[in-house]
Structure formats: C-alpha cells, structure tokens
Amino acid sequence: MAINQGPVLEFEKPILELEKQIEELRVFSRDKNIPMEEQIHVLEQKARSLQTEIYKNLTPLQRIQIVRHPKRPTFLDYVGIIFTNFIELHGDRNFKDDPAMVGGIAYLDDIPVTVIGQQKGRDTKENIYRNFGLPHPEGYRKALRLMHQADKFGRPIICLVDVVGAYPGIEAEERGQGEAIARNIQEMAGLSVPVVVLITGEGGSGGALAIGIGNRVLMMENAWYSVISPEGCASILYRDASKAGEAVQALKISAPNLLEMDIVDEIISEPLGGAHKNPQETANNMKTGIIKHLTPLLKLTPEELLADRYQRFRQYGKFIEN
Amino acid sequence: MIIPLLIRDFEAGVGMAIKDLFKTKPKYITVKPSGEFPGKIPSIEKKEIPDGLWVKCDRCSQITYHKDLEKNLKVCPKCSFHFRINAKERLELLVDNGGFQETDANMRTVNILGFPDYENKLKKSQKNTELIEGVITGRALINEIPTSLAIIDFGFIGGSMGSVVGEKLTRAAELAIKEKIPLIIISGGGGGARMHEGIFSLMQMAKTSQVLNKLSDAGCLYISVLTDPTMGGVLASFASLGDVIIAEPDALIGFTGPRVIQQTIRQILPAGFQTSQFQLEHGFVDLIVQRKDLKATLTQLLKFHLKGGKVNGN
User: Does ipTM exceed 0.85?
Assistant: First the structure.
C-alpha cells in the first residue's frame, strides 16, 4: 500500500503492520501450499475496518501531517489532471520570475481559464528551486499580473492555494512583501471575472489570502486555512512550537470548522488516507467542485460578480454594538 | 543555501515544514537562544514610557525628565528618538480642540472562537488603555478640514486587528465615502492580524483592503500614517494602500518580525532593517515626518486635495 506513496505517517503504522502480516501469511501459504484464504480474508477485512477507523477519526494535527506529506500532489500535478493545454506564463514584468508561484492559461473542459497557485517541490532539489512553495513579492505580483490579464480578456480565474505562510526573509522584506500582499487583496476584490479559490493543502495567512479573494472558496478535506500556522500560534501562545495540536484546536483551522463559519463554501473530499493515495481521484473531485461553483458565476454580469465578492468579505467578523 | 531551523515568534511555521524534509536523516544543530544572536534585534515590546520621573532613551541612553519628554511630544530632546504614544495622545496632537466626534465608540469584541484566555487579554488591554477596543474612529477636524480619522492603539493587544478593529476601519472608510471627506488611518500594531480571532482576523485584511477600492472609486484621498510598529497583517492590508504613505521616524515597519526572520535564515540582519528609513529607501513610504510636524504636513496634503482636480469626489 504505502510502497510508492512515500513515508508512512506515525498514525498509519498499525495499518501497515497489519498489511505486512497479511502479505507474510500469503507468502507462507503459497510456499507451504497450505490453503489459508479464509484467515487472509478475515485479516483483510480487519485491515479495511482499521483503515476506515483511523482515517475517519483523524485529528486536525494528523490532517496537517497528511497535507504536508512529501508525496502530496502539488499545483502542477493537479493542473495536469484538471485542466488541458496549460501554458505557463512567467514573470512579474518588474523584477523576475518566481518559481514558487506558478500561473498560466488552460482549458477547464472547453472554457479558457487563468489558473494560479503556489508550487511546492516534489523532492528536495525542486523544493530548493521552488523555495518550498513560499513566494517572494514578485510571485504575488506575477499572480496579480495574470489576474489582470484574465480580467481584460474575461477569463475566469481559478486559484489553488497551498502555502504554509509568507516567506520570512530579508529580500522579501526589501521588496515589500507587505505591500505585495495588500495590493493583491485589494485588486482581487476589484476583478470583474469569476474567481474560484480552492485551498488544496495549506492556507497559511497572508501568503494564502494574497490569491484567496474569491467569489467562492472551496477547501480540501484535509486542508487547513488560518491566520497563523499552528506552530507559529503555539510558539506565541505556549512558547512551544511543539504544542501545535492545542493551537490547532484553539484556532479552528480545519475544513469542517471553516465550513461551519461560512469561510468556505464546500469541502472537497479526498481518498481515504489523503490526496496522495489517489491523485487522479482527488483531482477529479476537485474538478467537479470547481465546475459546480464556477457554472452559476458564469451567468453573472461583471457588476454582479464584484458585488457578490464584496459582500462575501464585507460580512466577516462578529462584534456587539449597543 | 539558507537553512531555516527554528521559529519561535509570530508569523512562524515556515521553518517547521522545511524541517520536516530533514526528518529522514535527523541531524541536530545547536540553536542559540534568541538573546545570543549577534546584532541588535529591534524590540517591539519596550518602548513605552515607564512610570518614573526620569526616562532613559532607548537610542542615545540619555536621561530626560519625564515632563520635558512629554512637553517634547515624547520625542527625545537629545537625539529625536520617537517614543510610542497612545491613541488618545495622538488624537490630541492631530485634531483641533473640540473637533472630534467619535463613531462606533461602543463596539465590543466577542470571543468568536472561544479562544483560551482571550477575555482576560481584552480586559487587561481595556484597563491599560482605557479603550473598549484597539482603534478610535470618528469625524475629525484637522486645521478645520473635515476628515474621517482612525487611530490604532498599540497598547491594545499589540495594536492587532480583530473583528472590531476591522469593522471600525471599514466603517471609517464608508463614512469618508458617504461624506466625501478624506480618510486618515494611523497604524501602529506589532501583531498584525489578531490571532485570537483566528480566520476572522485574516478576513479583516480582506474587508479593510476591499473597501479602499470603493474609497478610491469615490475619489477620496486616503493617507496612511505608519507608526511604531506596523507589522504583519496590518502592513499587508490597509496600511500599505494609502494614496500617500507617511512614516514616523524610528518606526519598525515590515511584514515578518525581525526575530522570526533572523531565527529562520540564520543571518545577521542589516543595520536599520525594517525601519522607516529602510522603507523610504525601498520605495514603500512616501515621506518620513517628525511627530511635531505631522499635523502641519497632513494639513498641507489635505489642502492640496481641496482645490482643483477631483476634490474628494465632489
């Protein structure tokens, strides 16, 4: 099961253990020519129910481990399945091209769309090239350039968000990370084309929000979306980054919480054990969700789209007045 | 190659994901406690004026009689270092006598997520600042020019933005649009978005930024004034979006806190990193204005927009 799917997570070990036993039993049965089909069948059933039990009762922290799994599909993996004829467009026309933020034009079925997202690396080498999917200001500015381009040609925009947070670095500050994020938020609010945002893995603070102002916001089953990373919150709150589990509970960052709070419109389901267990199935689910939410938006006028998006973000927040 | 190692402050978490990649071959490197890092990390905690007769300047270490310091608008008479002032002091400094009409004065926070200890934090801040929440908003006359003014108080949970701050700022912008007057926001928040309100505080960044589109469409002037410190989600939303952006001298202005950056990249930060001067040099601030000149400069800028061109939408 886990052979081609990268490292096994701690909480998955009992499943793996059982599967190993089944395999051993099979080999034993074959070698000794002793029929053990019945026993194997019982164990297989047990493995299946164990899987269901473990994966259906994931804690928020376990879900974070799943979305950070090294084999979790990345932006370009999804683009390859969901869209066709993707052409990547590079550069912010100002400073440079940021490989941590990728964007371009593609077909969603037969509709041309602009698709943008953070790109994490699929191995260490690519991660270094992609800066672990952490954009610099020029990455946000490239995203904005492509959004304006889409706006000009009336193309819907699909943003796939997967970023742990903004990049803490000297150059990012020198080139105005704060301004870049602020500008994106403001100008995304002014787009007159449909914008569908899907948080595919990590939705970390400003880095996520910079491509996150959508008419609709969807979220993968195991994804998180938060004002601060669980570790960051834990280190402030408990002065201990390892208490991320408690921070996660306090911050309410998992998909069901956010659905309940009307921050997201729909949760896109993942295969048992997470997206990396079956990227094709995952991407199909994503595509179905994107089309479902994009279709009604295509009927709206530019003014209606602007008003729809504005209203969405205008209402957030709770307070008492008297 | 930069190897991020440890993160212990706000806007953290990045290093954790990176650290995970090294999990397969555990190799531990000793990380010095933050206090031992070379280079001075600007503090965002210790610039309040202590209760005492004599005050030592953070920059020149000279001692000043507290009344002299107050007379000098809490600017060190020896080296011009700008100490922090609170929202009420700022109000007095900028607004004409009797020229302030507060709006949404009674808007209160609810602990929307049931976040641990949040109520206590609010109570403590309310006691210390004598404010209900972290921003004062209202109609303000500045040398007889009507404006919609908002002032954030650092003393209130680090000047961070939760639902109330976000809502009041948004309404301040809506007031400016409705009455066709300029909007002035004085920022000063070390924490950026307020963690205790989770995703709702992140959404305030969207809410406050998008209303500025409407303000802009209405032709209203928006002046953003950055004071010490303006960081995180505050900088990454309304504070960066002024038609004119003014910074007070000596303010710490940036997105990620210097400590987090230093602990992540393990490099000594350049001198003057994330100061007002740094932001001016890098093109993110229009001008740096001494506290004593702020009202006059604001007045001058407001006057430019009273005659000719598009006059605040009129």
Answer: yes
**Residues B274, B280, B284, B287, Cα dihedral to 10°:** 130
A233:B195 CB<8 A: yes
For residues A82-100, average pLDDT: 98
* Predicted pLDDT at B114: 93
Closest C-alpha to A118, from B17, B21, B195, B253: B17
Q: Residue A293 and residue A291: Cα distance in Å, rounded? A: 5
Contact A78, A286 (CB under 8 A): yes
Q: Are strands A319-320 and A224-226 parallel, antiparallel or unpaired?
A: unpaired
Query: Which CATH entry fits the domain spanning B85-304: 3.90.226.10, 3.30.930.10, 3.40.50.410, 3.40.109.10?
Result: 3.90.226.10
Contact B198 A175 (CB under 8 A): no
pLDDT at B312: 55
pLDDT tens track for A22-54: 999 999 998 988 888 888 999 999 999 998 999
Give the SS3 label for residue B207: helix
* Closest C-alpha to A87, from A102, A69, A72, A70: A102
pLDDT in tens, B139-162: 999 999 999 999 999 999 999 999
Residue of B nearest to A235 (CA): B8
**Computed from CA positions of residues B279, B285, B289, B295, in that sequence, does the dihedral angle turn out positive or negative?**
negative
Q: Where are the beta strands (DSSP E) in B195-302?
A: 222-230, 244-247, 287-288
CATH superfamily for A64-314 is: 2-enoyl-CoA Hydratase; Chain A, domain 1 (3.90.226.10)
Chain A CB contacts of B255 below 8 Å: 166, 172-173, 177-178, 181, 206
Region B262-268 average pLDDT: 83
Is it the case that residue B7 has pLDDT exceeding 60?
no
Tell me if chain B has a CB within 8 Å of the CB of A256: no
Domain ranges, ordered by start, for chain B: 49-83, 85-304
A-interface mutation test, from B255, B266, B278, most A Cβ less than 10 A away = B255
Sign of dihedral through CA atoms A31, A32, A38, A40? negative
| Selection from A182, A212, A218 nearest residue A292 by Cα | A218
- Nearest Cα neighbor of B171 from B197, B199, B208 is B208
Rounded Cα distance between B113 and A233, Å, is 14
3-state SS class at B1: coil
